[in-house]
Amino acid sequence: MSDRNHRTNILLDMDGVLVHEQQAIEGAAGFVKALHERGLRFMVLTNNSIYTPRDLSARLERSGLDVPEERIWTSALATAGFLDDQRPGGTAHVVGEAGLTTALHEIGYVIVDADPEYVVLGETRNYSFTAITGAIQHINAGARFIATNPDPSGPSPTGMLPATGAVAALITKATGVDPYFIGKPNTLMMRSALNAMDAHSEDTIMIGDRMDTDVVAGLEAGLRTVLVLSGSTRGEQVERFPYRPWKVADSVADLDLDALTAS
User: What positions carry a catalytic annotation?
Assistant: First the structure.
């Protein structure tokens, strides 16, 4: 029987909670270490579909964070799981990077340039006009349109870059077809992560830095939510939303795990 007063699983957003542009946020390494020491099950979530979990684990390790690849859940993995459930062994025209193509290959999907069942749009640092044109033509010919996440932009050392949501809007403008977004704030992302770690929403806390993705998705999935102010959402913005997180903290360094999981 699940004990609703004792939460032993943690979902953590990555960017803005643990790292900022590949630099560990102060206190993040200690927080992750405490998760390991207490034996708490946790999963790091990211809408980023560029990298595989192994790649991300290595990048986090270089930032001083001990997060094994099996503790990382990406929008690419969630997208692959959705497609495997909907149409196993299908075909897709993919606009994206290795994180997405690897996830699709692992479920037995074939990536094609002719007559795909799906157009799958992910994040990349090198959006190709040719690939986007192909996506538009395939959708106009009847392919179903899936996108890994709705984020319109993402950070880089040189400033904001267009992300999946912005390119999806371009394709929608050209085709009149809206994509089905898999990543946050779609609760499918949360539920697929819970399934991957064999956890239940009643026993899980979501820690994120965005009210409009992390918190709302966590609430709709039935999780208790914690907002940290080390990323996108500022403290004065919280009251403008029609929903509230369970707790608000400056960063994960200010969270007491014992109190958090016992509540």
Answer: 13, 15
